[in-house]
What does this fold into?
Amino acid sequence: MYTDLSILDIRVIFIQTNDEGKEFVVAYASRSINIVKVLYSLYEYDLNVITFEYNPI
It folds into this structure.
């Protein structure tokens, strides 16, 4: 799983590795950040990303 966080949005790429070590994309997910979350501390931002990774809907 790869993640990217910016002030505007969160992006996650779910990957799977085959027996030869090659990575394949399984799914993409993204979500925009609302104005309240822009004011979060870095710690709260990171927790928000982790929460989104495991519950992207």
Notes: The chain has two helices and three strands. The radius of gyration is 13 Å.
